[in-house]
Amino acid sequence: ICQLIQYTIPEDLNSQFFYELKPYQIYDLLYFVYRRAEEGFQFCVSSLQRNIEDGQNDQDTLMLWALTMDWYARFLVDVNRLPEAFEYFKKTYDLCVKINGVDNEEIVAVLNDLGTICFVQNDIDNALSYLTQAVAIGNKLPDMEDFGSVLINLGTVYMKKGMVQEATQVYQEAWRNAKKHKNAEVLKQANSYLDE
User: Fold this and answer.
1) From CA 105, how far away is CA 85, in angstroms rounded?
2) Would you state the pLDDT for residue 4?
3) 150 with 135: CB under 8 angstroms?
4) Which residues contact 36 (CB under 8 A, 6 or more apart)?
5) What is the DSSP string of 162-184?
6) What is the C-alpha separation between 139 and 148, in angstroms, rounded?
7) Exposure string (b/e) for 15-54, b if CB count within 10 Å is 16 or more?
8) Does the pLDDT of residue 92 top 60, yes or no?
9) Rounded Cα gap, residues 29 and 42, in angstroms
10) CB 3.0-4.6 Å disulfide test: which of 8, 130, 152, 154 passes with 115?
11) Phi/psi at 167 (nearest 5 deg)?
């Protein structure tokens, strides 16, 4: 990509087309990388699933499968394939529950991801359900450093539903959590919401 960007041609009538063409060539390379990433994720997910179906369902293999599905779901979010991402996050959730039970940071994170996808797709009731579950579990985990961002997301859903008092309480909770864990980004967000 760097060589392509640095390559120049003499100034003439065609040079404007050359400069127009450069970004498209870069996009083509990025699309190739995207396709390779997708193929890699799909290969890993299906290979691990096959291994588990063949009886290799030890804790390490299950954890790797859950991690792979989580990463693939995040990739799908990045390329705006939210319905597919949602399904992979649900599978990740089910596996994480099977491996470690419900009361852990991984479950809070996955429930937060499910709620966020629902919110972005304007499925506010399910977003509220997932985020409420995430907060209920997160409240039992006082050392969870990223919990403030989950609270911010729940507050945003409350605001969308017109539940201003509940949102304010959750934003205050997020502020306290961010202060405790020295999370500057969440502190900034909480201050911003509380100032409105």
Assistant:
1) 20
2) 44
3) yes
4) none
5) T-HHHHHHHHHHHHHHHHHHT-H
6) 10
7) eeeeeeeeeeeeeeeeeeeeeeeeeebeebbeebeeebee
8) yes
9) 20
10) 130
11) -60, -45
DSSP 123: -
The count of C-alpha atoms lying within 13 angstroms of the C-alpha of 68, restricted to the half-sphere facing its C-beta, is 19
Instruction: Give pLDDT, residue 19.
Output: 57
Rg over CA atoms, the chain: 22
Six token digits for residue 68: 């792979």
pLDDT in tens, 5-64: 444 545 555 555 555 656 666 766 777 888 899 999 999 999 999 999 998 888 888 999
pTM to 2 decimals?
A: 0.84
Question: What span, in angstroms and rounded, lies between the C-alpha atoms of 96 and 89?
Answer: 10
Q: What amino acid occupies position 22?
A: K
162 within 8 A of 182, measured Cβ to Cβ: no
pLDDT tens digits along 139-184: 999 999 999 999 999 999 999 999 999 999 999 999 999 999 999 9
| Integer Cα distance of 78 and 118 in angstroms | 15
